[in-house]
Amino acid sequence: MIKQVHLIISGMVQGVLFRASAQNTARKLNVSGFVKNLSDGSVELIAQGEEAMLNRLIEWSRKGPLGARVENVEITWQTAEPQFKGFNIRY
Predict the structure, then answer these.
(1) Is 37 annotated in the active site?
(2) Letter string b/e over residues 39-54, b meaning 16 or more CB atoms within 10 A of that residue's CB
(3) Is 88 a catalytic residue?
(4) Is the pTM of this model over 0.90?
(5) pLDDT tens across 58-81, in order?
(6) What is the architecture of the domain spanning 2-90?
(7) Domain locations in the chain as residue ranges
(8) Residues 6+ away with beta carbon under 8 Å from 55
(9) How far apart are the first and last CA of the chain?
């Protein structure tokens, strides 16, 4: 069953290739959705896929790529309505 999760990742997560690394990780996990920077310095990530793969993406997001310093990950599970093709970076 397809699930959806909404993450807000805060800390030192912009300017450290967080979005590109998240995209690469999500694609390897066969997860769809998007990632984007927010004006407050955090990163928003919405992903759809199998729950086990989403949990792996959540675990990855708690650390992020080399150079990131993740301080907090807000996790909200949502009703999945298939709407994404692939996993993209939004600007």
Answers:
(1) yes
(2) eeebbbbbbbbeeebb
(3) no
(4) yes
(5) 999 999 999 999 999 999 999 998
(6) 2-Layer Sandwich (3.30)
(7) 2-90
(8) none
(9) 29
Pairwise CA distance, residues 50 & 47, whole Å: 10
Long-range contact pairs involving 28-32 (C-beta distance under 8 Å, separation at least 24): 29/53, 29/56, 29/57, 31/57, 31/87, 32/84, 32/85, 32/86, 32/87
- Which residue among the candidates 37, 55, 56, 88 is catalytic per the annotation? 37
Residue with tokens 């970076």, as numbered in its chain: 89
Would you list the DSSP string of 15-50?
SSSHHHHHHHHHHHTT-EEEEEE-TTS-EEEEEEEE
Residue 25, Cα to own-chain centre: how many angstroms?
9
* Residues 43 and 35 sit within 8 Å (Cβ to Cβ): yes
